[in-house]
Amino acid sequence: MKNPFAEKTIYQIYLRSFYDSNQDGIGDIPGITAKLDYIEQLGVDMIWINPFYPSPQNDNGYDISNYTDIDPRFGTMQDFELLVAESSARNIGIMIDLVLNHTSTEHDWFQKALSGDPFYRDFYYFRQGKKDGSPPTNWESKFGGSAWEKLPDSDDYYLHLFDVTQADLNWENPHVREALYDVVRFWMEKGVTGFRLDVLNLISKPDKLEDDFIGDGRRFYTDGPKIHSYLKELHAETFGQSNLITVGEMSSTTIQNSIKYSNPLEKEVSMVFHFHHLKVDYKNGEKWRLDNVRFDELKDIFHTWQVAMADGNGWDALFFNNHDQPRALGRFTSDKKEYHYKAATMLAATIHLMRGTPYIYMGEEIGMINPRFSSIEKYNDIESINHYQLLQEEGFSEKETIKIIQERSRDNSRIPMQWDSTPQAGFTKGESQYPISESKSWINVKESLKQPNSIFAFYQKLIKLRKAMPVIQNGSYQPALLNEENVIAYVREDEQHALLAIHSYSPSDKTITIPENFQNGDILVSNVARNQLTAETQLEAYETLTICITK
Ligand code: TEU
Ligand code: CA
Hints:
Elements: E1 10-13, H1 29-34, H2 36-42, E2 46-49, H3 77-89, E3 93-98, E4 102-104, H4 108-114, H5 118-121, E5 126-128, E6 148-150, E7 156-159, E8 166-168, H6 174-189, E9 194-197, H7 218-221, H8 227-237, E10 245-249, H9 255-262, E11 271-273, E12 282-283, E13 286-290, H10 295-311, E14 317-318, H11 340-352, E15 357-361, H12 382-393, H13 398-408, H14 411-414, H15 445-450, H16 455-468, H17 470-474, E16 476-480, E17 487-493, E18 497-504, E19 510-513, E20 522-526, E21 536-539, E22 544-550
Parallel strand pairs: 1-2, 1-15, 2-3, 3-9, 9-10, 10-11, 14-15
Antiparallel strand pairs: 4-8, 5-7, 6-7, 12-13, 16-17, 17-18, 18-22, 19-21, 20-22
Helix pairs in contact: 11-16, 12-13
This protein binds 1-O-alpha-D-glucopyranosyl-D-fructose (TEU) and calcium ion.
1-O-alpha-D-glucopyranosyl-D-fructose binds near residues 142 and 199.
């Protein structure tokens, strides 16, 4: 079945770090409008903007205190309307980020609940502690510590799967669902054409909340009991009536559920973000324990998901980077200068030639790298700061703790966009509120746009190719060259073309045998000086090579 978003590419903007238009050192909405030429030049179809609603910013806007307004630090509603108009004039859609699983504890609803209003009390999960006064269940917050916070002067606790200032909403309550659908409709009327829905598969909690003796509680509420019926209702009540693009962020989900979420016949969401491929350097599933990348696992996850999602008519959001992840460049490859172009473009090709909708996280298109700050003062993310404490309590030295934070912190990708090599990286004419990376001296937009063979130009080419070639959009997917170590390869095929895409993650040269049927094909994508194919091909370090046969 032809998928309407198959030819599109989406660009993610972490608003506060993208471009500051008014010199207060914080990126803002007019800052996006000011850079639309750049975004248009890249060739993307839609911009996903991280949350910009009024918020105490304890979790950088994922703690919303008012769903239908703009936080003054990011601009005004007029600024937002102008952005929608200016981008739609360029055929670029706006996807906003809605957090429907929880609100800030500063939200009116929570405040009214606290003051004892029973109507709003039922908007959240308030529960009595156990007899001994301990929390209602032993569930853990994803940011560390208990998932329950006790109210002062009461036996009651409220549930927060994330920060203590992010209270989980009670989707069981029809008034909650109706209030949230109103929010979605409000933004649709503003001309928004896409929604990224935060931790969407956590909204359905079980009827009975009980201790988890084998885990942190997630098995009870991940892809929870009523999730599919809630999503069908959300779809029917809001975006289902128009042709919007919706992507659900599905934490720790399964393939079977992801197919159901994204198969168009199910009428839930257009596509899913899932994260298994970004846990292949966790130790025993733990983010805050370092391990080497298990490359075979990475390869296996990509192949398994691509094949199964195609079989089940599901649809993937394709990505390596976002605001929650350290950059893939430097994580799955070297990020040294000598490999910079090849590693960045090889990672791009891996994702962009798969079946699904590719997402580019701001700065990825110029090969931005992790700053790996060495002092805790430079870190600002609540998750990193919590774990700085927790890891030391668990016995890690300060030095070991910093090493883990350097590798894992979400701040790695949240640093300001590097527009040029000046002291503020061209991000602001004032003084940046967030630390600027030294790498701006050699990795920046100005430099990229000067060079004909830049990483940026390679991304432009991938975006254009997807639009031009139905085989990239909707072709079948078969794993290939499975026995070649450090290589991810696959065949995409339709009635007109067959593509063999080969991506080498090896830091040194590597000889492979090109399958016979592809030996006479054309080179469609390459990141090295290669213009001829031979049966035995010596791939360079981090080479990507796609061969095309026209039938
Ligand atoms: O992320 C959900 C989520 O599961 C990640 O936070 C993930 O658990 C974490 O990064 C891995 O350690 C979404 C948003 O993308 C994130 O920025 C928010 O902090 C979170 O929800 C809470 O709203
Ligand atoms: Ca600003």
